[in-house]
Batch of 2 targets.
Target 1
Amino acid sequence: MITPPKGDYASVPLNPAGRQVAEGWDPAADAAAGEACRAFGAGGIMRLPTRLKIAWTDDSTLRMETDAGTQVRTFHFGRAGTADGAPSWQGYSVAEWLGLPPQGNPFGALVAPSQEASAARGAAAGGAPGGRAGPSAPPPTRGSLKVVTTNLRPGYLRKNGVPYSDRAVVTEYYDRFSMFGNDYLQVETVVTDPTYLTTPFVVSNQFKREPDDSKWNPTPCSTDAPLGTFHPPTF
Amino acid sequence: MRRCSLLSFAAVSAAFAMAAVAQNEVAGDWDQSGGGIFGFQEEFIDRGGGPDLGDYAGLPINDALRYKASLYSPSWLTVPEHQCLPHPGVYAYRSPGGLSIVKEYDPATQRLVAYRFYGSYGLARTVWMDGRPHPPANARHTYEGFSTGRWEGNRLAVETTHLKAGFLRRNGIAHSDRARMLEYWVRHDDYLTLVTAVDDPVYLDEPFVRSTDFRVDPRPNTRLAEFGGFANGGDGEGFGASDVFYKCVPTEEIAIERGRIPSFMPGANENLDMFSKRHNIPLDAALGGSATLYPEFAARLKPGSAAPAADRSAARPPRPTVPADAPAAASLHVAGQVWLLTIGGHNVAVQVGNEGVLVVNPGPEEIADAVSAEVAKLAPGKRIRIIVDTDDDIAHIGGNAKLASGTTPREQRAAVFAHENASLRIAQAGLSDRHSPTDTFFRGTRELYFNDEPIEIIYVPAAASDGDVLVYFRKSDVIVTGSVLEDLTYPIIRTDEGGSLNGTLEALNHILDLTIAEYRAQGGTMVIPNRGRIYDEGDVAEYRDMLTIIRDRVQDAVAKGSTLEQVQGARLARDYDGRYAAATGPASANEFIATVYRGSSAK
């Protein structure tokens, strides 16, 4: 929830080039260069404290909004990605259901068509759908949604300048769970990047479903200086 | 209409589960997501060297746990009963090692019976898949808990109950033995993600949710990176570098007096702000709570923020912590020849063998017929030959007359053993002779040999009263404690009958002298408390710790000149009240503190 100290890339499999970029992070320079959204790209946005709104645009397009950084992600079903557009923070995302019929979503894996979901993420938790099914509807507990995102602008895995490049591929797996009466959205994120990473970078996060969007609070991208200094871990 | 929809969903879900086994299967060898020991890729400090003291940010802890954690001393781990603690089930997979999941089939039916989980720092764990129910509430608890699983679409759902008190984080963030855990294991391509939610009515304001990632380990003959490394001739580069065999034996690590439990006194932990200072965040943010989980709290962390401190008033009120399932009568096998009958909330211990039946604490008179009926089920045709009263409490001895009498007037009455002081008090209470013990003793231990088993009746002076005894079945390796150990509440110490706090603690420490844990601080000697579930050494130590820590806090306050009202107002036991305080009576929060205060003042 806070910006980590400069140089804190512990456990991120950076190669020497990646470490060099991380060590040179300058949040003021990013802001001045119009690059304040680097930490809000597809490779890092799901780790930030944000709420989500998820809705179907049409039968083959799912739209995910974040209030942190006011970003919009678009998941395209049933067709291959197009890499001919200009790279962007959110890139181009191709989605497929794992373990569900290829057309439609009659059993609801993530959100049913036209059903909206809003979700919140904090340091360790996150979101919840309102919409047609209502807050008391049991969450679908079947398959997973796989999303592969390419054509990205260079961004940050962490808000303190830990980089991924324009060659990065972000693969995400979304699942919904019901635990102790709450409905959770889980995303596992796998980032591969031949420019800055030695191996895939794997993290997972949860969002907790909320009854409505009353806490939705869009804020622009920002760069924040870290509050503390980095203390290398010792054992 | 809704019912139809659910039925349609279930049918399709089952079809899918059969069609995509390869995608779903969680069995196999798994490595940390980044590969190798300490190869996890998030929360490196938390999962590696360990979190700072006072780092509770993002945890939905309540005030009771915040208080408990703030007084936690890492030296607690030097106490002999805690030296071999394993990573509990709610934490085990946060460890840096690999993981192996094995399927076990019934050789006769060829059906899946269970998944066995090995590796990391946790204990080997079983997730039962054969539809068996969870044990009754009074069954023993373990650090790994009792787990059952089922497939929900493409994920394995696991429910775990019967956990011992353990920890969520290695800096004093504990969970109680009332905690439950739900897990989902989901495989995506070559990655396995574990999502866990822990709900604890004693210490959490809402479920604590987190996830852990693994990747396929394709190496054959891999050694699970468990213990070893530095200690057993390894190269020190990795914990998996040497023999994984690990048999922990407690030793005297430091010169610590018997029964001393390291814990900070209230207000004395000078390192509580270690985390907040290091990261320049407000102390109230570092000290966690539900508010710190959600995005809006980020504003509070901005330098110079005028946002209000974490709102702890929104925390939910205390929830009932006593298990709801309390059948009228239930029998549980404890160990060897000993059974626990729980009837109307009373624990009655029964030893069954060739010579007949021995009963410890028959219970009040109104349950005597139910006790007889349960004994008849356990030991058809056998007579009750011996009764032991652990004290003079009418809730223990009320059934003496009926149970000792036998079924016909011509039968020899059972022998009833008790300490002389208990016998005197029974006589003073004006009960009939048929309630009175037939055999008493004054000091030390009364020895019996019954049902091919040596039995010790051990006097513990000035404990809950001046007439308490323990009953130790040496062959079955079971101890029945009577009033010196409660499970459901604080102990009820009858100071007007010669009981004392320090005597009760001495009795608990004596029980710990007798118990021997089987492996990793659990199992081995079983202990039957006055009420509630079956204990072992780890549980007794938890109860002993609680009582010692509360005594030490009250003594500290007394030494500083605090009055009883001030001590009660300070709520010095608020980290334990949610687990042990009764609603009313001598085990209620205020009355128990008053008992401790009077005992401390008299010292």
Target 2
Amino acid sequence: MILAEVKPAARPLSPHLQIYRWSWTMAMSVAHRVTGTGLYLGTVLIAAWLVAAASGPAAFDTAQWIAGSILGRLVLFLYSFSLMHHMVGGLRHFVWDMGKGYEPQTRMAMAKFTLVISTALTVLIWIVVLATR
Amino acid sequence: MQSNSSMRTPLGRVRGLGSAKSGTGHFWLQRLTAVANVILTVIFVFVVVALVGKPYPAAMALLTQPCVAILMLLFILSACVHMRIGMQVIIEDYVHEEGVKILAVMANTFFAIAVGAASVYAVLKLSFGG
């Protein structure tokens, strides 16, 4: 018996990012993944900082100097924002996990709140940091 | 009596593990660590902010407080479990070549364990007297 040759049909691919108009919910969903990935990579820096502290004063001073440099502060700022954004975005996911907040207006408002609250928390952290330095 | 129109065997339904054989294990563990992370992240931020600008002896005095060290350990463990599952989801979403995907998922696990082990070692070494 000769089996029919299976030819891949030239079907259209399912629509992806470039097809859709950007919305708040979509942007915050993408941001949740991006900040999650950033935090994932950032744990290397936390581990390195802790290992430096465990290695003694000289290594710790070097780590502190790097953290205090302009590049270090930029990374720390991005890390703190990612942490706050991912945390607030996670709280939003808890609401969805409980089966609530799926209405168009609600999810749009929650997406906007995610950005506003995470930005506010980041600014608050840095005000405290700069004030107590 | 309810009619059984499911294709699944009674044993399969009772086990409730689905075709992936692990059920909702990852889903639940991701939520569990997420709840823990919310609490531990807030504490972690307070600790880090308190450490800003402190010289080595003062910074170590804070970091080696039993309560602080225990909370740092919990944060590290919960964060590493959470980020491992999260990155595995991203890998499974975007890496479609089976061999590459398996290697990436393995590397992801190694990364999470290595980062976690290094951090735990450092906190314990400091706590137990440097």
